[in-house]
Amino acid sequence: MQLVDLTKHFGKVKALDGLTLDIAQGELVALLGPSGCGKTTALRSLAGLQELDRGQMIVDGKDVTFQNANKRGMGMVFQAYSLFPHLTAGENVEYGLKLRAHKASADKRKHRSTELLEIVGLSTHRNHYPHQLSGGQQQRIALARALAISPKVLLLDEPLSALDAKVRTQLREEIRRIQLELGTTTLFVTHDQEEALSIADRVGVMRNGQLEQIAVPSELYDRPSTAFVAEFVGLTNPIQGKVSAGSIDILGGSLKVLPGSITSGTGIALVRPESIQVESNKSGEARIFSASFLGASCRLMITLSDGTRITAQMPSSESVGLVAGASVNVSVLDLPVFVKAVT
Amino acid sequence: MGAEPLKRTWKVQVWRRFIIGFVALYLIVPLYSMFDFSTKPFGLQDKGRNLRAWRIIPSQPDLGIAILRSLITAGIVMLLILFMVVPTVIWVQLKLPKLRRPLELLCLLPLAIPAIVIVVGIAPLYRWISINLTESPITLSGVYSMLVLPYTYRSLSAALDAVDIHTLAEAAQTLGASTFRMISGVIMPTIRTGIINGSFIAIALVLGEFTISNILNFKTFQVVIAQIGRSSGSVAVSVSLASILFVLVLLLLVPAHKRREEVLDVDLA
Question: What is the ipTM score, two decimals?
Answer without folding.
Answer: 0.85
